[in-house]
Design brief:
The complex is a heterodimer of chains A (110) and B (114). Chain A is mostly beta strands and 110 residues long. In chain A, 0% of the residues lie in helices and 55% in strands. Chain A starts with a strand and ends with a strand. Chain B is 0% helix and 49% strand. In chain B, the strands form two sheets. In chain B, strands 2, 4, 5, 6, 9, 10 and 11 form a seven-stranded mixed sheet that branches. Classes of the chains: A mainly beta (110), B mainly beta (114).
Chain lengths: 110, 114
Amino acid sequence: QKEVEQDPGPLSVPEGAIVSLNCTYSNSAFQYFMWYRQYSRKGPELLMYTYSSGNKEDGRFTAQVDKSSKYISLFIRDSQPSDSATYLCAMRSDGNKLVFGAGTILRVKS
Amino acid sequence: DGGITQSPKYLFRKEGQNVTLSCEQNLNHDAMYWYRQDPGQGLRLIYYSQIVNDFQKGDIAEGYSVSREKKESFPLTVTSAQKNPTAFYLCASSTYGSSYNEQFFGPGTRLTVL
């Protein structure tokens, strides 16, 4: 079993939809939870990061962490075609090593 | 502009050849990382370095080698011992410490074995 599980999709939604992206994990030592966005043939860029449990909002993006269920989510409101990308969840414990999910391909159709 | 540069963007290699991928950063970061990305598998850590002249193996180090002679530079050599080297290679850097340290990524190098 992988430490971090993420459905690779692709997930296809119409413009304006609310998108929900999710990851589950098995290592209870993870404390930092991140979402990266990666456009085709580019390096990933950090979208949001959360420490421990709770919600964090930044514009159209909301990150949720539920440590009791070992489950994290990223919600995108009013999705736009420019949101079409691969979304990677990543986690780490005390060290600097990140563990990544497989990434979910999102396609927002205009 | 501060950032991470990787070169070349595309690299073609014949079987049996060693190739070296370049990674340079001007962010004054102590830590640098190399990842491999294959379709449907996310990013897997090859090697990382927390300080000059020191580096550690990641999860898939076999067939790869690195050096860290300068803080700004962390080149990756893909040796002929790597049986399936065709992939997208990403370099990253971060500050180092026990609190959260964002990893910044370069644009990547796509390696294809002919």
